[in-house]
Amino acid sequence: MNALLAVFGMGGTELILVLGAVLILFGAKKIPEFAKGLGQGMKEFKKASREVSEELENAMNTDTPPPPPPKKITPPVDAESVTTDVHAPSSTVPRG
Known about the structure:
This protein is an all-alpha fold. The protein has three helices and no strands.
């Protein structure tokens, strides 16, 4: 408890004065409601913080799938550059 007070830089007398001011400002009935809301807020904050930490840890631990192998690319065939090996029948006339 002393470490908590040291963080705020308060002594025992200062803490009593602050608690007395809170009691006067909010009243005895509102303080439990205020404390309950504060507790629920802290609980939600811790839950969200834990979920974010878990998501980051899961993202770091998951294995990424290997990249697909490169596809063999064939150049397009140009119609003019294609040679056909078709021989037309020759009409040779005997020379005489």
